[in-house]
Write a structure and sequence with these properties.
This protein has 230 residues and is an alpha/beta fold. The protein is 49% helix and 13% strand. It is built from 10 helices and 8 strands. The protein has a 5-stranded parallel sheet with strand order 2-3-1-4-8, sandwiched between helices. A 3-stranded antiparallel sheet has the order 6-5-7, with no helix packed on it. A hairpin with a 5-residue loop joins β5 and β6.
Length: 230
């Protein structure tokens, strides 16, 4: 994919394949994958932060499956986004922005979408919605694993318990527990999905792509869309 650096936001319910699609963009086009969930888990579980009251409060929310405090997340995602942009890298998100506040901010806080427009240019910001029904998402989550070292996702269909990239053992994410997953789905419906409606009202184009097929086929559809756009 030639041209200017780009920002791609991947939306979809938990289990829709956002992380996998972001990693495929990394390998094919050299994007930087900003996995908000992984970034937050690393921050919240860092032993250095065990006495930080704010971070411990956010850790408890994360373990319950509740979205972290929007102002807490926005501040850190903005800082990282600006740093990545200034390095001249394209970026893809598999978990940001998660709430209306994170996406659009308020009178005192600039939202992530406004920052991306400034850093990447309006024509280089893409929002993609992966369409996956609730039953498929739940099934994927029930068997999903991730590498304990590099964090790469391991598809349930692969029936392996080791990472094919680094060979480390696989583990289940805390927030993939069925009860927590059900709560995460409700959080997505109530707090994340409304971003798409508001984004359309503000003139952003939302590309809907079927997320049910095998990941490589979904990636082909995403790649075709991005290639056609430029």
């Amino acid at each position: 994919m030639k041209g200017s650096k780009k920002a791609v936001i991947l939306y979809g319910p938990p289990g829709s394949g956002k992380g996998t699609q972001a990693e495929l963009l990394v390998r094919r086009y050299g994007f930087f994958h900003f996995d908000t969930g992984q970034y937050l888990r690393r921050l919240l579980n860092d032993p250095k932060n065990k006495n930080n009251k704010e971070i411990q409060r956010e850790k408890k929310l994360n373990e319950e499956g509740t979205l972290n405090t929007p102002s807490f997340v926005l501040k850190r995602v903005r800082e990282e986004t600006r740093r990545i942009s200034r390095m001249g890298l394209s970026i893809t998100y598999s978990g940001s922005p998660r709430t209306l506040f994170e996406a659009f901010g308020d009178v005192k806080h600039e939202g992530l979408l406004a920052l991306l427009k400034k850093e990447y240019g309006t024509k280089n910001v893409f929002i993609i919605q992966l369409l996956v029904n609730s039953a498929s998402a739940a099934k994927r989550n029930a068997g999903r694993l991730m590498c304990a070292v590099c964090g790469l996702p391991i598809l349930a269909a692969s029936k392996t318990t080791t990472c094919s990239f680094c060979g480390a053992p696989a583990k289940r994410r805390v927030d993939d527990d069925p009860k927590i997953f059900a709560h995460r789905i409700e959080e997505y419906k109530k707090r994340t999905f409304p971003i798409l409606t508001k984004a359309i009202a503000r003139g952003y184009a939302i590309k809907k792509i079927n997320g049910e097929p095998a990941p490589y086929r979904v990636h082909d559809a995403i790649a075709a869309y991005l290639e056609k756009a430029h």
